[in-house]
Amino acid sequence: MPKRSTPRGRGRLPPGRPFRLVLGRSLSPVVITCEHASRDLPDGLRTGGAAEKRILASHWGWDIGAWALATCVARSLGASAAGGRWSRLVIDLNRPVGDPTLIRREAEGVPLSWNARLTAAETERRMLRYHVPYHAAIDSLVIGRLARGVRPLLLAMHTFTGELNGERRPFDAGVLFDRSVRHARGLAAGLRSAGLSVRYNEPYSGLAGMMYSIHRHGSHHGLPCLELEVNQERLASRRAVDRFARIIASALRAVLRTRRLRASGSRSPRS
């Protein structure tokens, strides 16, 4: 295993860079992404009133607590984390071009003024300014590892609202996967051992194409990729975020140990 470089970076945002980055020089065998890290609007776009501000601050505008969680886990593991700089209501980094929810015109019946006069040219501009650089940054993190013999596990960090359309979601976390079944089971086992209630492919399913961003990079490079969804109601304080981060980091370490044992030809311990 190649030596890991000294982690650097504090998640600062250089002017003009359309993504967040933590420990960008790390060669850890984990890369964390956070597509819905921010509720901010870029310069030139602004809310038109209280209703839009409410939507932007809600789960429609971002994944509440996800970036705080992603950065805590990344620093605990010495891993890299990349996050979106702008709200998903500007452009959704977890959607492909052509998806009808790539840029939403409204949310909960509230028209979004900054998307009201959206043209094909504006969609293209946002793709090239925000979407493309974000995914290029993730690819750079992956390629830097692969070039040095490190085949990382890719993990997308997301959160979900505890109630949607009147339906309760009474569990702590969901592990989304499509082909990385063994890694999903290992991550879920680690979370459950810490007392969390965990479900597979809920509240969204990786089997239904709901892992666009992380699957795009994992599939392209033949790497294991998972998405972790955490209930926003469980992240109401910094202390709670720190607790979940410790649990997630511990579960990921166990998954990495199992990968190393399998790679060396040893028999992995039974769960």
Quote the CATH topology: Aminopeptidase
Helix fraction? 25-40%
The CATH homologous superfamily? Zn-dependent exopeptidases
The order of strands across the largest sheet is 1-3-2-6-11-9-10
**Series of H and E elements:** EEHHEEEHEEEEHEHEH
* Tally of helical runs: 6
Mind summarizing the main beta sheet?
7 strands, mixed
N-to-C CA distance: 25 Å
Q: What's the number of domains? A: 1
Supply database-style keywords.
single chain; 271 residues; alpha/beta; Aminopeptidase; seven-stranded mixed β-sheet; two-stranded antiparallel sheet; 6 helices; 16% strand; globular; disordered N terminus
How would you describe the overall organization of this protein?
The structure is a single chain. This protein has one domain: 3-Layer(aba) Sandwich (Aminopeptidase), CATH 3.40.630.40. The chain has 6 helices and 11 strands. The chain has helices at residues 50-57, 66-77, 120-146, 181-193, 212-221, 238-263, and strands at residues 19-22, 30-34, 80-84, 106-107, 110-111, 153-160, 163-164, 167-168, 173-176, 198-200, 225-231. Strand 7 (163-164) and strand 8 (167-168) form a beta hairpin. The radius of gyration is 18 Å and the shape is globular. The two termini are 25 Å apart.
How would you summarize this macromolecular structure in one to three sentences?
35% of the residues lie in helices and 16% in strands. With 271 residues, the protein is of the alpha/beta class. It has a single domain (19-261), classed as Aminopeptidase, CATH 3.40.630.
